[in-house]
């Protein structure tokens, strides 16, 4: 096959259908940008989960005198020194526990004042109303239920709380946004495929006389189809390159510079450039193969003589 002929036919096809080619490039770029964005969002959510779940604790709250009067879980009275020692000993013996930290009522009151000092309720609280607690660091944050089962309802224990629950709503929201992005991405991919198929059909129809002659003189099917397939692949590859450029630009100006979210939201462990760069080859490969395959199947009917 003469490469010069194929390249010239690609140029002719792109020029003849310039408007539709531009539409293909834009739709492929948008759909693949959403595709890459959804992959990066998944990585970001997983990174945040690993970062925060590794830092949160399971807290075993102990009964105080106030709880003994108002909380059914503390009906047997405030926690005793012997109960505290036994709870601590049992925690230390558990294989899932990495570290146990005791927080006294005075320490709990101090931390509350630091976090909620502006609250009207803060001025009415006293240290003896706060709860003593054991902050338990787990080797595996998923093993929270082991602690809850062992200590919930135990004498001297008011409740067992997993700090992960405060993060679950955030991660559910992020996952919901990610699935919404994937749904839009799927819709855009369908639109892109329809545009590619229509562009190839129009191009094939406009050159049906030439392709018919080539078939009559013995040209192979692949020789006839190659310019159309490569025409779609080139348009898709341009769209993929635009999508990659968009993702790189967004990462640079939103995370690192411009908005500089990495500085303003220091509590969020943003994914690095390596995560983004590993997605770019996949986006480019998809942008090349998807239009080529769509064109191949569309041409099987429209290039028959």
Folded structure, characterized:
There is one protein chain. The two termini are 21 Å apart. The chain has a 4-stranded antiparallel sheet with strand order 2-3-1-4. The radius of gyration is 31 Å and the shape is elongated. The relative contact order is 0.17. With 305 residues, the chain is of the alpha+beta class. α1 packs across α9, α7 packs antiparallel against α9 and α7 runs parallel beside α11. The chain is built from 11 helices and 4 strands, in the order ααβααβαβαβααααα.
Gist of the model:
This protein has 305 residues and is an alpha+beta fold. The protein is built from eleven helices and four strands.
Element pattern in H and E: HHEHHEHEHEHHHHH
Major sheet, described briefly? 4 strands, antiparallel
- Evaluate the radius of gyration: 31 Å
Percent strand: 5-15%
Domain ABC3 transporter permease C-terminal: 183-301
Function: Part of the ABC transporter FtsEX involved in cellular division.
Subcellular location: Cell membrane
Family: Belongs to the ABC-4 integral membrane protein family. FtsX subfamily.
